[in-house]
Design brief:
Strand order of the largest sheet: 3-2-1-4-5
Number of domains: 2
CATH topology of the largest domain: Nucleotidyltransferase, domain 5
Shape: globular
Number of helices: 16
Structural class: alpha/beta
Number of strands: 10
CATH architecture of the largest domain: 2-Layer Sandwich
Strand content: 15-25%
Radius of gyration: 22 Å
Distance between the termini: 54 Å
Order of helices and strands: HHHHEEEHHEHEHEEEHHHHEHEHHH
Length: about 425
């Protein structure tokens, strides 16, 4: 037997047994199978009732190493992150498996397929994250996992797996709000201090949020219909572009004429910070129908005109948000963080830079790989909460909906 065969798996489970268990449809999801192996087939609820959640003494000056698990949508991700005694963070490993190939034939994310893919791949993903970090599970100080919001099937897979790992090792569990993961990423990458304004733009969310501390969030504006990423994907689909649609629209917009079609800018002049993209999407559909049959030039021009309308809206809205920030927090340096997958769009990034410059604000955009869903942001949010002594019981519930500003109202926030 060679050295590779002799090397223990991070969980101490033989590879052959794990493959056999995965192939057995009678065994249920991976998280349940893992829990049975590690907890002699006692369900997490029974473990929680009988033994409770073991407290973990930690202060802001303690170094902590966390495993983070993210399964809220169509990325299966895990990472190991260290938060040192100064509060600075370091990513030790960050593994993400995209499900684009599974969902591409359907033109969008299919929740059932997403959950099944998490079941199949999560064990290998977090094992790889541990292996690349050079750590065994016992060397992790705590386990963090997305507890919502998101597609409930996927959230359950990741959260139940994290519960099993935490219960088996006696380590703390932190159920992370997925949006808080995005909100705190800039503290990992840039060390930004509180308070700051965040613009979250993704497939499911478009929000301005005031971030005053871990768990202390106030939503200033949100979409009243479609999220920005959703609008990009729907426009791409009606134009017959490949999935995922956002990057395709951006690519064609770069070669199109943004002045050819005069699309509306909903709510552009209003002082409130809400978004509305449904009317813009409808205008694109009507224009496409009127112009049909569409040539390649027509499609590029529609994409360019659509993206120009979006950037005008983002620039104006962000300017209004920065004015409000200065009025409500006159002693705080103006700074805005951008998070979410749509932040990778270069035209939107330029519009945000222009708005920030116009108002003398600092703009922080984490690397693109950390704007999209990933395990590092969940591990880091868990580390921030752990440093404040904020952990969760093993019976924490998964949530399909979980507004970020609910954290403070439920007592889960801290300065």
């Amino acid at each position: 037997m060679d050295r590779a065969q002799q090397r223990p798996h991070p969980l101490g489970l033989p590879q052959g047994q794990r493959r056999a268990a995965r192939a057995d449809p009678q065994q249920g999801c991976f998280a349940q199978r893992l829990q049975c192996r590690l907890l002699p087939c006692r369900p997490v609820s029974a473990f929680t009732r009988n033994q409770g959640h073991r407290p973990f003494a930690v202060t802001g000056q303690a170094q902590a190493t966390l495993l983070g698990i993210e399964t809220s949508c169509d990325e299966t991700a895990a990472a190991v992150v260290v938060r040192d005694r100064t509060g600075a963070g370091r990513i030790v490993s960050n593994i993400v498996r995209s499900q684009i190939e599974e969902h591409a034939p359907f033109g969008g994310v299919v929740p059932e397929l997403a959950a099944r893919a998490h079941v199949v791949h999560l064990d290998a993903i977090f094992a790889r994250a541990l292996a690349e970090a050079g750590l065994a599970l016992a060397e992790i100080d705590a386990v963090a996992a997305t507890a919502g919001p998101g597609l409930i099937g996927g959230v359950l897979v990741g959260l139940t797996t994290a519960k099993a790992l935490a219960a088996a090792t006696g380590k703390p569990l932190i159920g992370v709000n997925h949006l808080e993961g995005h909100a705190l990423t800039a503290r990992l990458t840039d060390g930004i201090a509180f308070p700051y304004l965040m613009l979250l733009v993704s497939g499911g969310h478009s929000q301005y949020v005031l971030v005053e501390g871990v768990g202390r969030y106030t939503r200033w504006g949100t979409t009243i219909d479609d999220a920005l990423g959703e609008a990009f994907d729907k426009v791409a689909k009606l134009l017959g572009l490949a999935y995922p649609g956002g990057p395709e629209v951006e690519k064609l917009a770069a070669i199109g004429d943004p002045a050819r079609f005069a699309f509306p800018r909903p709510l552009l002049r209003e002082k409130r910070l809400d978004f509305s993209f449904s009317g813009l999407k409808t205008a694109v559909r009507l224009t496409a129908e009127k112009t049909a049959p569409l040539t390649d030039t027509d499609v590029a021009d529609i994409c360019a005109s659509f993206q120009m309308a979006i950037t005008d809206i983002i620039r104006a809205r962000t300017g209004t948000a920065l004015v409000r920030f200065a009025e409500e927090l006159p002693d705080a340096p103006p700074q805005i963080v951008v998070a979410g997958g749509v932040a990778a769009n270069r035209a939107i990034g330029l519009a945000l830079r222009q708005a920030a410059d116009e108002h003398g604000a600092r703009l922080v955009v984490p690397p693109a790989a950390l704007c999209t869903d990933n395990g590092a942001m969940i591990a880091w949010a868990g580390a921030e909460r752990l440093a404040l002594g904020l952990t969760d019981p093993l019976d924490i519930a998964a949530r399909a909906r979980w507004p970020l500003d609910d954290l403070g109202r439920t007592g889960q926030g801290a300065a």
